[in-house]
Amino acid sequence: MAEVVSEIASVTPTGIPWRVKTAELMEAPQLDMLYAILKAAMPPIVRESKLRGNKRLDTVYISDADFHKMVSTIKKDTVVLDSASEDDLEQYLAESPTDSIIFRQTLQGMLLDLPPKTKGLLALPVVRSAMTHKLASIQHLSIEERQQVLSLWLSHPAPILRGLFRQMTSLAKVVFTATNQSFHRLSDFPITPPGWNPPAAYPYEFIQLPSATTTSEPTPVLIDTDVVIVGSGCGAGVCAKNLAEAGWRVLVLDKGYHFDSAFLPMAAPEHLLHMIDGAGAVTSDDNSILIVAGSCFGGGGTVNWSASLRTQGFVRDEWSEDKGLTFFKTGDFDESLNYICEQMGVHTDFTPNHGNQILLDGADKLGWSAKKVPQNTGRNEHHDGHCAMGCSTGDKKGPVHGWFPDAARAGAKFMEGAKVQKVLFNGKTRKTAVGVEGTWTSRGKDGELYGREDEKIVRKFRVKAKKWYSVESCTAEKQRLRGKPPRPKIVVVPCLTLSKNPNIGKNLYLHPVNVMTGVFSRDVRPWEGGILTTVVNTFENMDGKGHGAKLECLSMMFQNWSPTFKIDALKYRHMNSYISIVRDRDTGFVYPDPQTGQPRIAYTPSKFDRHHAMIGNVALAEILYVQGAREIHAALPGMPPFIRDEKATSPPLTPTSSTTSDDIVGRIKDAGVKDPKFTAWITQLKKHGNRTPESPFTSAHQMGTCRMSTNAKSGVVDPRGRVWGTEGLYVADASVFPSASGVNPMVTNMAISNWTSRGVIQDLAKEQQEARL
For a designed S-S bond to 534, which of 45, 196, 356, 611 qualifies (C-beta 3.0 to 4.6 A apart)? Predict the structure, then answer.
């Protein structure tokens, strides 16, 4: 007999997950090799005069003269030593990241859920043979020799080694800057925003399941509802509010957990381990692109940067005219966009911070088109550069602070820690969706998530929906529900396999991104102010079909690695970083790992799309130059930075439009910048290129794997979001996009979800009316 839900609780956790702290990632020899590589990427640097005993192979030693020269450079180029001492700097340089417990735990979390094939890279013969120097393995090499090995990987003809170079150096940078307390002290980077005082947030209550009352395999806990929504991202918020306010019983499930605003923003390690899918280490099969997605209550709407751009006209034209989805050119879609923006208080009445103002002013000088990016912050100023780590003020009106509270007040229920594994169908045709089945994992004692796994309740559950239910989740998650079904008493088939539709998981668009960074003499403190509040549009339509690059700002460390990274990192408070974000034409696909069933991603940025990213990279360099950046760094391994000659002066600029050139990359250099040193560097940058897999590409937007279409042969869902070949099964997230949106997808996603959910309400009302007759 199935048990019935018995208890409801509200909780607020923090800490490093127990399974991460106790994880065994790989065999000891491979782990030793991994640490040896990471130490080469981020070595301890010690003054020879402070040496006690014999020199260590894994340490870089410098003379007192070199140390004092380093101090002099830091004093000249940064304000770090205005508030810190030389002893603080010396301690920072001497620290070995791999000796830090929090570094190792964060690293373990990032590697824990990687596919077995990826974890086993270091054991491959081609890799092992490339980790030697003069017949000695990498653990027995000096730091200088290890760095020579890394340099050889970067230029190696084997893509696997070039990709491994990028992976190892990126891991070292990310985990080091996230966990090193000395770096945080020296850069004065605060864990919480200035004036942190979080207001009371909506008091969510999450369904709790009872412990099993028997030692034998317990029956699933039965939950009854009208509509079940899988996932809690941007589309889910809109669907839940609309359906609940229409009077239907709604249950929202998410594998992630909710974090109250009083415990936000999280410190970087906790943020990665609790709020980001795969702890920020999910990559495509060839390691050519890193995929970043939210994995907590609120999904991407909890960790995004508030950008609220509407679907552009040329994209709506494409979807309507080329794809036959005429809804996107109607007033109904306009009304849906207006409703979404009104509900979230989307506005442009704010003051951009230094980094974002650089884009506006630089574009204006160069004659390029730029504008403010609307923010979904309830018409409030939102000077919170930490918001991607969780919004403590509640001003960002995503699902958690903008949609689910209304849904909850209308009666919607929520369940965190609920990983859906099967979709239930019944009827002779096995086409009618009637519910879902999965596994729920409770929090630990006192509502925390860092406790022992054996202190948590783990139960199977089964949600039975009366007639219909809606699916909303991350694009990559769709494929988790595929595979061979078991043979229970009721008919259970995997999600989206019933129709045998070959489009499922295909047509993956990722908006690939390259990063450029400018270092300024001014103390810009990039973490202060709104994160992404301006955009340059001049290069967004390079082929006449809406494919190109937009230029946007973000708050992060520069991406390039060099043996001097530790010193370069101290310039963080003088840095602004920017992205060249591409509306990709060419696609990849998602598929289940044959060993684990976890989603795998096959995607490589194409030559066509990489060319557009390079156009954006060059344009960003131009903007940074005319705005006075002292240094310009391209996140392209092997590409040296541009260092401005302090004695050189720039001639007056003449605004120039570059939009009519057939070869815009070639013409950008004529946009008013005549410095021969800089133009030579631009030529070098273009020649260097952004070849994969060594060039770091990142994606924060995943779209298209359940795309909307006018027939089952060309897509997965119909124009109302209903899965072809099924009844009662809908998809309402960015995976239904017919192609890449070209803008941050939240508003487009929500507008489509609004349309879909109102269609579900009509369908439910019709079914209810027919049942009464």
Answer: 356
CB 567 within 8 A of CB 606: no
Residue 615 banded pLDDT, cuts 50, 70, 90: very high
Which positions ≥6 away from 748 have C-beta within 8 Å? 310, 311, 734, 737, 741
Element at 218 (helix H, strand E)? none
- The type of residue at 500 is K
Across-strand partners of 435?
A: 424, 464
Token pair for residue 284? 């495509």
Which pLDDT tens digit goes with each residue over 714-735? Answer: 999 999 999 999 999 999 999 9
Separation CA 309–CA 344 (nearest Å): 13
Q: Read off φ and ψ for residue 388, nearest 5 degrees.
A: -65, -20
E-assigned strand segments in 520-571: 534-536, 549-554
What kind and span of H or E run contains 701? none
What does the block give as tokens for 299? 């999904």
Total-model pTM: 0.91
* % helix, strand, coil for the chain, step of 5: 40, 15, 45
Which pairing describes strands 227-230 and 697-699: parallel, antiparallel, or unpaired? Answer: unpaired
The β-bridge partners of 599 are 592
Structure tokens belonging to residue 685:
């940058």
Q: What is the C-alpha R_g of the chain? A: 26
Lay out the sheet containing 729-731: strands in order across.
Answer: 7-9, 206-208, 413-415, 250-253, 227-230, 469-471, 729-731
Helix (H, G, I), strand (E, B) or coil at 524: coil
Omega of the bond leading into 693 within 30 degrees of 0 (cis): yes
Cα–Cα distance measured from residue 713 to residue 197, given in angstroms and rounded to the nearest whole number: 53
Give, as one character, the DSSP assignment of residue 402: I
Asked if residue 312 lies in contact with residue 722, where contact means CB atoms within 8 angstroms, the answer is no
Neighbours of 135 (CB within 10 A): 6
Q: Cis before residue 265, ω within 30 degrees of 0? A: yes
DSSP-assigned letter for residue 13: -
Q: Is 479 helix (H, G, I), strand (E, B) or coil?
A: helix
CB under 8 A, 24+ apart: contacts of 445-452: 447/9, 447/11, 447/12, 447/13, 448/13, 448/14, 448/15, 449/13, 449/14, 449/15, 449/17, 449/257, 449/274, 450/13, 450/14, 450/15, 450/16, 450/17, 450/18, 450/21, 451/18, 452/18
Instruction: Say how far apart CA 43 and CA 353 lie, in whole Å.
Output: 34
Residue 35 in contact with residue 252, Cβ under 8 Å? no
Mapping DSSP onto H, E and C, the string for 60-78 reads: EEECHHHHHHHHHHHHHHC
Percent of the chain with pLDDT over 70: 89
Nearest to 739 by CA among 274, 340, 317, 180: 317
Q: What is the DSSP string of 134-166?
A: TTEEGGGS-HHHHHHHHHHHHT-SSHHHHHHHH
Q: How many residues does the chain have?
A: 773
Mean pLDDT of all residues in 363-381: 97
- Every domain of the chain and the residues it spans: 513-699
